[in-house]
Amino acid sequence: MPQKASVYQRYFNAEHDMIRQTVHRFVQKEIAPFVDEWEEAGEFTCRVAAKMNAGLDQVKEIPMAKNFACQVSNFATYEAVQIFGGYGCMREYLVERLYRDNRILSIGGGTTEIMKEIIGKRLFG
Ligand SMILES: Cc1cc2nc3c(=O)[nH]c(=O)nc-3n(C[C@H](O)[C@H](O)[C@H](O)COP(=O)(O)OP(=O)(O)OC[C@H]3O[C@@H](n4cnc5c(N)ncnc54)[C@H](O)[C@@H]3O)c2cc1C
User: Which of 1, 35, 80, 83 has the most CB atoms within 10 Å of its CB?
Assistant: First the structure.
């Protein structure tokens, strides 16, 4: 019995190592490149909100922050579905819902096109 347990333990450890390496590689290649953009979008939005609260004119920066955050979110949800493959298109999987719900972000509260119009008016009058 202890022999069997030790064989099983070695098998389990090897398998565990393989899973850990796979997850590590996946995070490095697929997730890490987006993290800086998520951080930037959050930082930019918070900075604009703080300036707005301080009474500064942020009419140009607000749509810029919204469009940038939407762009990052579009990319992240697109990639999430891509990583899941066919499962990513099935309702049983959360990424399908996230991808679908994400679409409203570029529409509600002012569409991306209208945001660009506001930015353009501020830049060029
Ligand atoms: C699920 C859901 C929840 C919502 N919740 C709310 C809410 O809580 N509060 C609220 O106020 N509203 C809400 N809305 C409405 C939302 O704000 C509007 O859908 C949004 O403002 C876009 O308006 P529209 O749907 O009439 O699209 P339209 O104005 O008909 O636009 C259609 C397309 O044409 C483009 N377009 C329109 N005009 C121009 C232009 N001049 N130049 C270039 N492109 C243009 C748009 O960018 C868009 O791509 C919600 C909508 C949905 C679907």
Answer: 80
